[in-house]
Amino acid sequence: MEIKQIYLKLTELLKNSYSPYSKFKVACIVKDEYGNYHHGVNIENISFGATICGERSAITSLVTSGAREIKELYLMTSSDKFVPPCGICLQFISEFMHPKSSVYIFDSNKRYKHWLFENLLPTSFSKENNKDDIHE
Ligand code: THU
Question: What is the pLDDT along the chain (136 residues), one digit of tens a residue?
Fold first, then answer.
């Protein structure tokens, strides 16, 4: 998909955000290793801690489909700033995204900026850190 199409789809998705408490809308599209796109929005809950972010919502769909890699991640929020993923989402993304892969963040004014994932999360708790402890 071209960036213009991604922008249009994110704009559409943003309307599906369920955010009655914060009124802060988030939509995310992730592209997997097969070239398929998966969508997510933030889904809030009256028990606030049960809220799921847009990024994790999209990634659960990617993994459920059988894919295991986020090739590109596109994010849009209702803010006029470029809002990066929260810490929990960065950690969640890091499980499936290569540090050199691309993240595009849109603001509410049709502008976007590009980051390499490694610039959003320069260091993290990873499989490399604890590989001796993982037994499959
Ligand atoms: N939110 C996301 O969807 N993604 C983030 O990375 C940060 C926060 C959502 C959670 C909540 O519904 C709203 O934004 C305000 O925090």
Answer: 899 999 999 999 999 999 999 999 999 999 999 999 999 999 999 999 999 999 999 999 999 999 999 999 999 999 999 999 999 999 999 999 999 999 999 999 999 999 999 999 999 999 877 666 555 5
Report the separation in Å between the CA atom of 8 and the middle of ligand 1, taken as the mean of its atom positions. 20
Which residue owns the Cα nearest ligand 1 atom 3? 53
Residue 117 CB-half CA count within 13 A: 22
Place of tokens 């610039």: 119
pLDDT tens per residue across span 102-132:
999 999 999 999 999 999 999 999 987 766 6
Strand-pairing partners, residue 43, are: 18, 52
Please indicate whether residue 44 is annotated as part of the active site.
Answer: no
Enter the pTM of the model.
Answer: 0.94
